[in-house]
């Protein structure tokens, strides 16, 4: 009995070491396999992970879908969600469109629209291709508003959209014939104004002449001074002028002797 006990303890110890080695090899194999699987997933599914998980910035909002159904209520953000939606002020250029004013004047309008998303849930769930819808809405709104105003109102007033932050006109093109007519009208208005100014000047000059004539009447000294001033002005001209001064008495006698 004393000789058999050491042998059994040695075999038990060898069995324990073998079992421990198998467990250690299995754990190492499992960890290696897990590490390889994680490496493969990180290598091949990086684009998928990036597409699914996106960071929502402070100016963005997100609509959360759970099993294909949108969760109603307040939009989420900022943080890490599934998809994001910008809530900044967006500008959208509208294509050039033909518009007819209230006084039957054809125009070509080119505008730009400024808007932002107030309700992200409604924007995602109720609107298909939101920017295109906003562009069409801006065009129809401009046509309706410009069609209700005359050309003068359109050129002098700033029209804005109803459903948007604001609509600014980038360009307003008039037909060539209308441009010529407006240019002719402007020239005619300028000429009429010039004629009015000239007529007012003539009236002022005539009043001044009448006042001067009443001043010279019966005042021979003033008349002689005006005569000398006229001679001085004639002397300053480049042409040679011969003047025969005639006394006023002689001229009065000559005028009175006429039939």
Number of strands: 10
- How far the N terminus sits from the C terminus, by CA atoms, comes to 189 Å
Largest sheet properties: 4 strands, antiparallel
Mean pLDDT: 68
| Uncertain regions spanning at least 5 consecutive residues | 1-7, 78-84, 159-165
Query: So what's the CATH class of the largest domain?
Result: Alpha Beta
> Judging by the overall fold, what is the CATH architecture of the largest domain?
2-Layer Sandwich
* Shape by Cα distribution: rod-shaped
Rg calc: 50 Å
Counting H and I runs of at least 4 residues, what is the number of helices? 8
Total count of domains = 3
| Helix fraction by DSSP (H/I, runs of at least 4) | 55-70%
Note the beta-strand portion.
15-25%
Spell out the CATH superfamily of the largest domain: Band 7 domain
* Secondary-structure element order, N to C: HHEEEEEEEEEHHHEHHH
Per the CATH scheme, the topology name of the largest domain is Tetrahydropterin Synthase, Chain A
Q: What is the quaternary state of this protein? A: single chain
Structural class: alpha+beta
């Amino acid at each position: 009995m004393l000789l058999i006990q050491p042998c059994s303890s040695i075999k038990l110890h060898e069995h324990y070491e073998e079992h421990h080695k198998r467990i250690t090899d299995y754990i190492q194999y499992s960890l290696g396999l897990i590490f390889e699987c994680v490496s493969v997933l990180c290598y091949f599914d990086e684009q998928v992970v990036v597409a699914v998980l996106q960071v929502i910035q402070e100016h963005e909002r997100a609509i959360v879908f759970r099993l294909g159904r949108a969760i109603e209520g307040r939009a989420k953000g900022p943080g890490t969600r599934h998809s994001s939606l910008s809530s900044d002020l967006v500008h959208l250029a509208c294509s050039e469109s033909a518009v007819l004013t209230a006084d039957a004047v054809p125009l070509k309008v080119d505008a730009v629209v400024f808007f932002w998303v107030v309700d992200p849930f409604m924007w995602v769930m109720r609107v298909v291709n939101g920017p295109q819808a906003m562009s069409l809405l801006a065009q129809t709104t401009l046509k309706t508003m410009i069609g209700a105003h005359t050309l003068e109102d359109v050129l002098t007033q700033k029209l804005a959209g109803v459903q948007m932050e604001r609509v600014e006109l980038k360009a307003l093109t008039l037909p060539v014939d209308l441009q010529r007519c407006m240019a002719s009208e402007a020239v005619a208005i300028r000429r009429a104004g010039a004629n009015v100014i000239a007529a007012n000047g003539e009236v002022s000059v005539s009043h001044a002449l009448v006042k001067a004539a009443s001043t010279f009447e019966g005042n021979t000294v003033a008349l002689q001074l005006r005569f000398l001033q006229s001679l001085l002005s004639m002397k300053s001209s480049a042409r040679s002028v011969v003047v025969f001064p005639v006394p006023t008495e002689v001229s009065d006698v000559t005028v009175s002797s006429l039939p």
